What does this fold into?
Amino acid sequence: MRAIRLGILGSGSGSNFQALHDAIVAGTLEAEIALVMSDNSSAALLHRARESGIKHAVIDCRGFSTKFPIEAQHEVAQALREAGVDLVCLAGFMRLIKAPLLDAFPNKIINVHPSLLPAFPGLEAWKQALDEKAPETGCTVHFVDSGMDTGTPILQAKVPVLENDSYTSLHARIQEQEHLIYPQAVCTLARKLLA
Ligand code: GAR
It folds into this structure.
């Protein structure tokens, strides 16, 4: 089986990109990161990609702070296709994906979200869990559809909410689990997609 080619889209620190890259380097994930793209030109994610010698690019969102313009989605789809990407992994990408990109990669876009979906979709899910005094939360790798964090779950990990948890401590423990399940989920999908 050949290595699956990944495209990674993110907006922030890129720790999930790092987890995927580290799993590849460690030999636990047979994959190649073909392209990293970010809507944030100062994202640490881009710095990490540069340091790792991985092709990377900034997405031109035409000055919109949250919207993902249709033209930009076409451009991303084309760049991912040109890079020969098989599977698109969202890693902290904070814009909603719509038809042009979803149609270019049907059932081949996945995301990692910091809650046990369907609980706590949307922004800063760890804050939602703590504010609602949930006894446990976690993270979910799921297929991306046109809704916000509504696609079919692929893999989940539970994280207990501790009595003395702060937003920061809870998010950190959720991220530890994200870094384990994201490479595992990609590994499982790779076997199916390339079979
Ligand atoms: C992760 O915790 C991820 O679950 C979250 O953004 C963070 C990105 O971290 N994504 C969402 O909330 C998407 N709804 P990273 O840039 O260090 O990978």
Residues 167-193 form the longest helix (27 residues).
